[in-house]
Amino acid sequence: MGVKIPTARLSNGVEMPQIGFGVAALGNGKEFYAAMDSALENGFRMFDTAPFYENEAEVGDVLRHCSVPREELFIATKLPNACHAYEDTLRAFDSALKNMGLDYLDLFMIHFPVPSVGKYPEAWKAMEKLYRDGKVRAIGVSNFQEKHLQKIFETGEIVPHVNELECNPYLTVRPLCNFCQENKIRVINWFPLGGPREPLVPYPTDDFKVLLDEPLLIQIGEKYGKSSAQIALKWAIQNQITPIPKSANPKRIRQNTELFDFEMTKEELEAIDALDHGRRLGPDPDTFDDMEMG
Ligand SMILES: NC(=O)c1ccc[n+]([C@@H]2O[C@H](COP(=O)([O-])OP(=O)(O)OC[C@H]3O[C@@H](n4cnc5c(N)ncnc54)[C@H](OP(=O)(O)O)[C@@H]3O)[C@@H](O)[C@H]2O)c1
Questions:
Q1: pLDDT at residue 123 is higher than 80
Q2: Cβ 103 vs Cβ 75: under 8 Å
Q3: Is residue 278 in a domain?
Q4: How far is the CA of 191 from the centre of ligand 1 (A)?
Q5: Atom of ligand 1 nearest to the CA of 78
Q6: How many domains, in total, are found in the chain?
Q7: What is the pLDDT of residues 145-169, one digit of tens each?
Q8: Which among 54, 110, 142, 256 is most buried, taking Cβ atoms within 10 Å?
Q9: From the CB of 42, is ligand 1 less than 6 Å away?
């Protein structure tokens, strides 16, 4: 049933699938349920949600009732921006578990650092407690820059197991990925396919290029009989990064798992790296402080 997706070992020994299924923008209706069924059927075992996506409860519902044993699933959700105070973090975690109907999570992440509030080190202390209490198998951060990680290194005791970042061939954030990898923090990349085909307002619209229309990705794909999307996902995987593509389309969901029967050359990976022009479509982690988000 579907592709057997290989795993990557996190610094604490926990095995995490090398690709996950992102559920933002899928809603919580018919399209969402069909996409989840298709993702499970095609071999996806890792699911990335957040309270802000408004389908945390539905993700829990599908995964509790699916035929895949719980221990084969890898379920991740995130801490809302408004809950960085210590007790609020503990409460937000309990409410996520309750909402999803689960008795443990595989991964819990601080969604954004919100530097203007500056409480993420406090939130991290609470994340460490949740981890030590055995309520979650791995803890991480999302949208953290090197300086935010440095602060966690100074004030915390556990190095985050993952950092989930906006990253793709147009925004390789290579220095940050290198820093994470040197510190054994697994990078998960969001917008792995370049994100939405239409730029999100108020993000930049000038000169908007669709990553999946990029001639180099199409050309390398032709050599291997793969699509530009598969090349973008495999570029991440070959760089020890875990992509979490979203799709509502069964054929594309399947395509997004068919990545483990080819390897690109070093030269091809380097050519893809050279597409980087720092094109960020999501919020700037240094200034983003929307308290509704998370
Ligand atoms: N931590 C964070 O702050 C953060 C922020 C944003 C997102 N995320 C996570 O990252 C996940 C992915 O982000 P995203 O969905 O916005 O962007 P994405 O995965 O880069 O792109 C999704 C778009 O690509 C299309 N697509 C999917 N597979 C395709 C294929 N094989 N060929 C061609 N087109 C394909 C989808 O359309 P169809 O559905 O029509 O296939 C959709 O329009 C989210 O679901 C969420 O879990 C995290």
A1: yes
A2: no
A3: no
A4: 6
A5: 1
A6: 1
A7: 999 999 999 999 999 999 999 999 9
A8: 110
A9: no
- Count of CB atoms situated within 10 Å of the CB of 99: 16
| Beta strands 15-17; 241-243: pairing state | unpaired
- List, in sequence order, the alpha helices (H) in the chain: 30-41, 56-65, 86-100, 120-132, 146-155, 174-182, 215-224, 228-238, 250-255, 266-273
Higher pLDDT, 105 or 205: 105
Q: What is the pTM of this model?
A: 0.97
Mean pLDDT of the chain: 96
Using CB atoms within 10 A of its CB, is residue 233 exposed (0-12), middle (13-18) or buried (19+)?
buried
Task: State which residues form the domain around 158.
Answer: 7-273
Which of 32, 193, 289, 290 most suits a substitution to test ligand 1, by most atoms within 8 Å of the C-beta? 193
24 Cβ below 6 A of ligand 1: yes
**Could you tell me if residue 282 is inside a domain?**
no
CATH code of residue 25: 3.20.20.100
Residue type for 146, please? E
CA angle 63–65–66, rounded 5-degree value:
65
Q: What tokens appear for 214 in the block?
A: 């990029």
**Ligand 1 atom at shortest distance from the alpha carbon of 112:** 3
